[in-house]
Amino acid sequence: MKPPSLNGIRSRYEKQFIGKPDRIGNYLIHQIGEQDCEPGYRCDPHVQWCYEISYVISGEGMTSIDGKEYEVHEGDLFITPVGVQHEVFSNHHFRYMFIGFSICNGALNDDTRLIDSFYQAPPVNIMKGDHEIMLLFSRCLNEYYNASLCHSLMIECCLNELAVSVMRIYLSQSRKNYRNEIADGSGGISMYAVMLYIDSSIRTIQSIGEIVQKFNYSASY
Questions:
Q1: Residue whose C-alpha is closest to residue 9's, from 41, 49, 34
Q2: Angle between the 110-120 and 151-170 helix axes, to the nearest 10 degrees?
Q3: Would you report the helix, strand and coil content of the chain in percent, each value rounded to 5?
């Protein structure tokens, strides 16, 4: 099984374990990387041999699954199941991250069965992701690149969070941030809740006025 051709790629970082996957906890990692494609790039069509999650960092391109083409744009997630005919190509500048993995035989518990079942047949192929997903990809790549102390353990943590976070996005499970309970008359919501809101919405908040409206504080406060 050969990797995709490198024609039309501006830059690429990839760890490949094709034929001898890297065992990380309950996962077998087949490939992980990031690539920046020139317009007109096209990878070799291939039959997908593992689950693959991809995240579009910038630009736009196309992914083909069993001959059906999907446009993908900045911020999009796309999942490729096992056994489909897969291809990626770029009409414009196109930069994306990807990870190919499977679940270890004998490692299945209730949680990993759920993950395995989901990636076998995701309800749709394309979903809009978020900045948190890109950060999880980056952390995995950084751990592989730097191979720092206990990097396998860190990669396992990142993989668990990435696999589950993507699954939740596809299944549209809303996330609720922890928020301290405030007794009536205590003067309002805790500062911690404001901080959490800013952290989780930093890419979409347009002004302080939005925070004021949400939490009923004055802008000067």
A1: 41
A2: 60
A3: 30, 30, 40
Taking alpha carbons only, the member of 20, 19, 52 closest to residue 33 is 52
- Nearest-angstrom CA–CA distance, 201 and 171: 20
Q: Which two tokens stand for residue 109?
A: 């518990």
pLDDT digits (tens, 9 = 90+) for 2-16: 444 456 888 888 889
Token pair belonging to 19: 């034929």
Structure token pair of residue 96: 């994306």
How confident is the model over 138-165, as pLDDT tens digits? 999 999 988 889 999 999 999 999 999 9
pLDDT digits (tens, 9 = 90+) for 161-188: 999 999 999 997 545 544 444 444 444 4
CB 77 within 8 A of CB 129: yes
Which distant-in-sequence residues (6+ apart) come within 8 Å of 111 by Cβ? none
